[in-house]
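Try this one yourself first.
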C-alpha cells in the first residue's frame, strides 16, 4: 500500500472486507439502505477515496461486513488480521491474549520460539510446547 493516509487505509480495508463477504459495491450500498444505484456510487466513492466516511456510516459498514470498526481503520495488514482474530475469540480468550501479547512484545526470544514451534508439523507441536514450557 503506497498511500498510508487514514483514508487510503480505510479504503483498502473496505475493499478487503467487502470481498471477504462476497459483496458487490451495489449489494453493500443497498444493505446500507441507500438503494442499489446510490449505494453503489457511495461505496465506490469511499473505496476510491473521493468521499470521506462519517462515524455513523463507519459503524454501519463494520456491522454489515461483520468486522470490528478497528479493522477498517487498521494501520497495516498484520494489525488488521490480528484485530479480526481477536474479534473471533471469545471473551476469556481475548482476556488471555490481552495479557499474552504485551508479554510477547517484551520478550522477543520467546516470541521467536513460539513462531518456530508453530512452523513445526502439527504432530510435533505438542511435544515442542511441553519442552518450551519446561515440562519434559
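Now uncover the answer:
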Amino acid at each position: 500500500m503506497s498511500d498510508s493516509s487514514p483514508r487510503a487505509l480505510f479504503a483498502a480495508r473496505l475493499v478487503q472486507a467487502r470481498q471477504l463477504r462476497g459483496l458487490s459495491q451495489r449489494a453493500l450500498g443497498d444493505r446500507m439502505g441507500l438503494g442499489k444505484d446510490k449505494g453503489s456510487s457511495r461505496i465506490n466513492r469511499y473505496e476510491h477515496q473521493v468521499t470521506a466516511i462519517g462515524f455513523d456510516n463507519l459503524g454501519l459498514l463494520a456491522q454489515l461486513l461483520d468486522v470490528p470498526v478497528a479493522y477498517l481503520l487498521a494501520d497495516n495488514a498484520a494489525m488488521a488480521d490480528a484485530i479480526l482474530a481477536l474479534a473471533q475469540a471469545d471473551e476469556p480468550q481475548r482476556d488471555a491474549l490481552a495479557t499474552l501479547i504485551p508479554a510477547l512484545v517484551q520478550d522477543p526470544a520467546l516470541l521467536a520460539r513460539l513462531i518456530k514451534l508453530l512452523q513445526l508439523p502439527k504432530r510435533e507441536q505438542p511435544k515442542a510446547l511441553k519442552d518450551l514450557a519446561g515440562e519434559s
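Discussion: The CA atoms of residues 3 and 9 lie 8 Å apart. The longest helix spans residues 91-106.
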